[in-house]
User: Which sequence fits this backbone?
């Protein structure tokens, strides 16, 4: 179920999935499979748009273990890697030596070298660096007879020796040479125009004829590497790749030209090439508009002026800064003369934000609230750059004829525009248009002598149209080539050479037959199923950095990625009895390893919210009566624990066993605080609260005191209320009777709705100038996130955005110049920010607040989730620790004994205490310490 889809429109269920643990294991795996005649599909990141990473045979996943660097020779600018190495990870490794692997795909943070070789990937800089095949020195591979070979440059004598071998390798060299010699003229005539840098249609026999000896006497040495690159795993299995490296550009900068139409933008591309740019990327209005609703990309729109219909993002590389500055000015002036209405030059420090917006395009488009999706079917054609404007016009006319909206973006510098029509493939009528459009588009590309596949590969989506592209004779040579390499047809059958109609084996074939009554209001996503279907398989959740999917980052298990969980959930919802399917072991295991960190809601371009989906599934299935009973009485139990700490401890140890709660024996159950926050508050006399002068009216601040700050960490709640009094507020605590966050996470959605409604009622006296803040970030973020969909009828009556985090209040006071003088401290502070804040607030607000303390040196830990995440760390101890070991624990190991530690969430503070024995504080405790003292009676 996890491997039935990639990022294409197709769905094919394999008979088995294997994950070899090393290269030797991979070799033996392939040998065993070919000996038993099993079809084989190699899979790396699984982000293929053409269906080449799925198959009905055995999937061999190299992404989990085969991610090692084998040999690095910086002086020779070469590196040998396993196929599961991620492109960005490789370049991070090389950065210290000023080197990099040149191809730069839009999926670079999860694209793996094996997949890049298979698809001959290129990326934005192909006009400057070329494609993957230009940067592969040699390939280690396993052939269809199980033999291990190395494909590399051969001299004329070495080629003769290879052709004299009597094994399969020798047969491959003999037959390849014969095909090239016999069909040379027809191959060159029928292949895409030679000016097209990206031409991956079929097998690259034309590349070998044009660029390699003996066919080009001045060309590169003979090698089968160009043939394997772009063969999509259909000829052999690559076990390692030796890559060429290039020096990083010394000086680089972007200029972003704004146009009133795509036509106007494309008409300038050929002229721009005279400036020898490193990249020219087209972004259309539909893509730009999609960034407005994505919280991560909103901040990356800083450079957009007005409402452009198209933007060309142009990057220049130069060896000196002076030359770069001069050429940028010339470039800008030229663009403005040619009709760009704006052409801002981007500060180099902000370039990554522009590229992030560009690379997010596909996921953003697929996450639109519509059942019509921008599907991949005609998205990968390239034509000669001189023909690009005319080709766009013809493609647009085709869209008009079929009455289709489409988005246009891509690598304009090399004549490639990704055209994605919006279709609902669950509808028979749209599926019929899908097939007709593909056929018509194939003829259009042929007319312009373009490449039907430029970088995404032929896969299954373009395979039926390749014969039309190159004619009978060349197509027959490809068939012979495939037969020679793979006599039994076991390597990725149906890919490149295949005639299966593209309307078959589609993921849209699976649709729900039963409608569930949901706990959340899913209308913003159309329906629960549509919320799940926002996952398009692009695999951003599989990146090795960032916040998203900490359990995947720690385990590299597909099931523990957002994509994996979405696939399992989609499968369950389309079963005849979805409630039974939702309780399936595979799905439940995947969901139990989800930390509900909320990162996917922000970092996934399509904003797939697994935390909410997990809560919905829990609601559908219900939880144990004993757990529901305890959660509904959580306030009373915690209050009783504070009043009777000895009995509470006994009850925890004996009356309430860890085993019954599913708590790992190595965890300490949370204890009760030394006092009740409400009791402490009530014990204060009004005279001791620094009474107001007559006629003085203080601004009110309403404080949502969650259960944790009332009973588990009352010292945090006390510091919050005390510091607010010191800040001059009229403090109005609201003592919560339940935890909406906990109730939501456990699927008790009606109860969470009731508590939120009760709190809204308690806040009905809030006036326009009052503040509302919370202590615990996860409880505050609930108001910004789930509340509006649990209480749709009250959305107009209460502005959920009013509820702020403590540090957001401090930052607001700083902006108003209302923060009093703070005591100076000579301390270093290590800061870990709660994952919900990182996802749905601004973690920099915590840094800005703490920066107001004189003498305090703040070191922000570059961590994702701490690994505790509510009850996750109690139930999944080993994985919880592994997640903490990725960044949090190594950082705290550097802290000195006298340093302070601030962790903004109670789960984070618990994790720190359990795994380091350090005492982490809340931001309010720091401010309570440094604010001017008031006479206040302690309990």
Assistant:
């Amino acid at each position: 179920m996890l491997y039935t889809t990639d990022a294409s429109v197709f769905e094919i269920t394999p008979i088995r999935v294997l994950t070899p643990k090393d290269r030797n294991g991979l070799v033996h795996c392939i040998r065993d499979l070919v000996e038993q005649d099993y079809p084989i599909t190699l899979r790396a990141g699984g982000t293929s748009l053409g269906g080449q990473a799925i198959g009905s045979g055995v999937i061999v996943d190299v992404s989990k273990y085969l991610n090692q660097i084998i040999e690095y020779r910086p002086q020779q600018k070469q590196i040998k890697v396993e196929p599961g190495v991620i492109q960005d990870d490789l370049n991070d490794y090389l950065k210290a030596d000023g080197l990099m692997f040149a191809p730069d795909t839009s999926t670079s943070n999860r694209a793996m070298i094996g997949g890049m070789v298979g698809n001959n990937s290129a990326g934005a800089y192909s006009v400057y660096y070329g494609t993957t095949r230009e940067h592969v020195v040699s390939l280690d591979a396993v052939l269809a007879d199980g033999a291990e070979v190395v494909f590399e440059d051969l001299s004329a004598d070495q080629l003769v020796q290879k052709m004299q071998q009597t094994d399969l390798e020798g047969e491959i060299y003999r037959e390849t040479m014969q095909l090239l010699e016999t069909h040379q003229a027809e191959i060159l005539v029928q292949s895409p125009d030679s000016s097209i840098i990206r031409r991956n249609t079929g097998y690259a026999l034309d590349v070998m004829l044009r660029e390699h000896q003996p066919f080009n006497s001045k060309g590169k040495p003979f090698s089968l590497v160009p043939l394997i690159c772009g063969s999509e795993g259909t000829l052999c299995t690559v076990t390692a790749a030796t890559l060429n490296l290039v020096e990083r550009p010394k000086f680089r900068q972007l200029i972003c030209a704004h146009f009133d139409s795509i036509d106007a933008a494309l008409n300038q591309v050929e002229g721009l090439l005279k400036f020898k740019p490193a990249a020219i990327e087209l972004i259309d209005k539909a893509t730009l508009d999609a960034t407005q609703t994505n919280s991560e990309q909103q901040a990356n729109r800083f450079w957009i002026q007005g409402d452009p219909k198209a933007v060309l993002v142009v990057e220049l590389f130069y060896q000196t800064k002076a030359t770069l500055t001069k050429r940028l000015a010339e470039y800008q002036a030229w663009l403005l003369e040619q009709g760009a209405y704006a052409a801002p030059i981007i500060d180099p420090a902000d370039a990554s934000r522009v590229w992030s917006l560009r690379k997010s395009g596909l996921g953003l488009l697929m996450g639109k609230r519509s059942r019509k999706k921008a599907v991949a079917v005609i998205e990968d054609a390239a034509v000669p750059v001189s023909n690009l404007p005319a080709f766009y016009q013809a493609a647009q006319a085709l869209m008009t004829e079929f009455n289709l909206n489409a988005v246009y973006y891509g690598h304009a510098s090399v004549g490639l525009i990704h055209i994605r029509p919006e279709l609902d493939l669950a509808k028979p009528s749209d599926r019929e248009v899908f097939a007709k459009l593909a056929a018509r588009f194939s003829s259009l590309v042929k007319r312009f002598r373009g490449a039907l596949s430029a970088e995404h590969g032929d896969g299954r989506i373009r395979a039926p149209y390749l014969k039309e592209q190159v004619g009978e004779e060349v197509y027959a040579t490809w068939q012979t080539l495939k037969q020679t390499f793979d006599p039994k047809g076991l390597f990725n059958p149906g890919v490149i050479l295949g005639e299966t109609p593209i309307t078959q084996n589609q993921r849209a074939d699976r649709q729900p037959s039963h409608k569930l009554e949901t706990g959340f209001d899913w209308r913003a996503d159309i329906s629960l199923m549509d919320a799940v279907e926002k996952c398009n398989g692009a695999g951003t959740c599989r990146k090795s950095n960032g916040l998203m999917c900490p359990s995947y980052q720690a385990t590299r298990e597909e099931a523990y990625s957002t994509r994996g969980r979405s696939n399992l959930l989609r499968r369950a919802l389309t079963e005849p009895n979805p409630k039974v399917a939702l309780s399936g072991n595979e799905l439940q295991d995947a969901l139990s390893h989800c930390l509900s960190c909320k990162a996917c809601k922000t970092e996934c371009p399509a904003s797939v919210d697994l935390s909410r989906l997990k809560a919905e599934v829990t609601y559908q299935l219900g939880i144990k009566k004993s757990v529901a009973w305890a959660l509904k009485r959580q306030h009373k139990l915690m209050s009783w624990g504070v009043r009777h700490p000895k009995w509470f401890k006994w009850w925890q140890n004996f009356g309430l066993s860890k085993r019954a709660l599913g708590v790992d024996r190595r965890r300490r159950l949370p204890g009760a605080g030394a006092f009740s926050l409400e009791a402490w508050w009530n014990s204060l006399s009004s005279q001791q609260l620094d009474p107001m002068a007559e006629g003085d009216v203080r601004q009110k601040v309403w404080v949502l005191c969650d259960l944790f700050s009332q009973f588990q960490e009352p010292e945090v709640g006390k510091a919050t209320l005390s510091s607010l009094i010191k800040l001059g507020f009229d403090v109005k605590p609201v003592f919560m009777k339940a935890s909406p966050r906990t109730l939501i996470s456990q699927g008790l959605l009606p109860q969470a709705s009731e508590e939120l409604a009760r709190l809204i009622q308690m806040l009905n006296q809030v006036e326009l100038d009052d503040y509302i803040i919370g202590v615990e970030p996860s409880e505050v973020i609930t108001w910004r996130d789930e509340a509006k969909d649990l209480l749709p009828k009250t959305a107009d009556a209460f502005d959920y955005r009013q509820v702020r985090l403590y540090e957001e209040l401090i930052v607001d006071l700083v902006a108003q110049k209302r923060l009093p003088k703070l005591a100076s401290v000579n301390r270093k502070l290590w800061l870990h920010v709660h994952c919900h804040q990182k996802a749905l607030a601004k973690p920099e607000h915590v840094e800005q607040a703490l920066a107001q303390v004189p003498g305090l040196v703040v070191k922000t830990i570059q961590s994702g989730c701490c690994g505790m995440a509510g009850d996750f760390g109690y139930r999944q101890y080993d994985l919880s620790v592994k997640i903490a070991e990725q960044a949090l624990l190594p950082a705290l190991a550097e802290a000195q004994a006298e340093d302070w530690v601030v962790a903004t969430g109670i789960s984070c503070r618990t994790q720190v205490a359990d795994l380091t024995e350090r005492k982490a504080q809340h931001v309010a405790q720091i401010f309570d310490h440094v604010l001017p003292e008031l006479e206040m009676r302690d309990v």
